[in-house]
Specification:
CATH architecture: 2-Layer Sandwich
Catalytic activity: L-glutaminyl-[protein] + H2O = L-glutamyl-[protein] + NH4(+)
Number of strands: 13
EC number: 3.5.1.44
Family: Belongs to the CheD family.
Distance between the termini: 74 Å
Number of domains: 1
Pfam family, one: CheD
Number of helices: 2
Keywords: Chemotaxis, Hydrolase, Receptor
Strand order of the largest sheet: 2-1-4-7-6-8-10
Helix content: 10-25%
């Protein structure tokens, strides 16, 4: 019953990347990913023993792409939740754990924090309790999600490069001669 984007894995473990998701109910399946500023939402129904994980880049994309791109939060969350429900989960039983949103390049962008705020707000609006989270910081994360039980293992990636962006002072129009 595993679905990764549009690939059927037939109960095998899956690695997902940006814009992908996976859903399964097998106790032997592990869904994994690596995150920086991206977000992964691990959502499962503990009564139906089914769960799934997505991996999205930003809360919102260009207006033209929002309705058909799983790289953006609203669509990624909707696709995952709808697939879980079609696969036998009940919405009122869903639980979530969310990960990611790191600041990988200091001073360059606030994408990680915006992603974290988005996913928590989305879950609250959908009345899906967030029972665990690891958001923010400045380290990448490696995740392993066991969809049948909702268990997640996280390992911080020590060797991920965190760069500090130093602002460039724009040149003036003044000319100085020595």
């Amino acid at each position: 019953m595993t679905n990764v984007s549009n690939k059927i894995l037939q109960g095998k473990s899956a690695y997902i990347t940006q814009g992908e998701f996976a859903v399964d109910c097998s106790p032997t399946v592990v869904i994994s990913t690596i995150l920086g500023s991206c977000i992964a939402a691990c959502i499962w129904d503990p009564d139906a023993n089914i769960g799934g994980m997505n991996h999205f880049l930003l809360p919102n994309g260009p207006q033209v792409l929002e309705s058909d791109s799983s790289s953006f939060g609203a669509n990624a969350m909707e696709v995952l939740i709808n697939t879980l429900i079609r696969s036998g989960a009940r919405k009122n039983c869903l639980r979530a754990k969310v990960f990611g949103g790191a600041e990988m390049c200091r001073g360059l962008t606030d994408a990680g924090s915006r992603n974290g705020l988005f996913v928590l707000s989305y879950l609250e609006r959908e009345n899906i309790p967030c029972v665990g989270q690891s958001l923010g910081g400045n380290q990448a994360r490696r995740l392993e999600f066991y969809p049948e039980s909702g268990r997640v293992r996280q390992k911080l990636v020590e060797d991920a490069c965190v760069t500090e962006v130093i602002p460039v002072v724009p040149a003036s129009n003044e000319l100085e001669l020595f």
